[in-house]
């Protein structure tokens, strides 16, 4: 499971987050049939992703540094280089025009 979810979670660690107000924006994504909800906060030079897998309630926390991602998924500690993160293929967005 670790090898499946971590690349997907890492993708979101790479995307810059907008400045957050007091109310953090909850983001969601689906990977291999599981839906994950998470928030992103900036703590110094580190981005922190905290969330849960919605069906099981399994929590995760990932701290994204300049070269490495560290944290926990459930009760298991994880650590992997940022260069191992593989981007997910995003659907094309169609913008309306007049």
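^ Assign residues to that structure.
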């Amino acid at each position: 499971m670790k090898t499946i979810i971590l690349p997907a979670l890492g993708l979101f660690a790479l995307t810059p987050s907008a400045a957050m107000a007091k109310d953090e924006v909850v983001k969601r994504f689906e990977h291999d049939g599981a839906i994950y909800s998470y928030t992103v906060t900036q703590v110094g030079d580190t981005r922190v992703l905290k969330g849960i897998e919605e069906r099981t309630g399994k929590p995760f926390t990932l701290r994204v540094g300049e070269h490495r991602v560290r944290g926990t998924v459930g009760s298991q500690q994880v650590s992997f280089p940022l260069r191992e993160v593989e981007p997910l293929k995003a659907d094309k967005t169609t913008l309306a025009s007049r």
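The CA atoms of residues 65 and 74 lie 20 Å apart.
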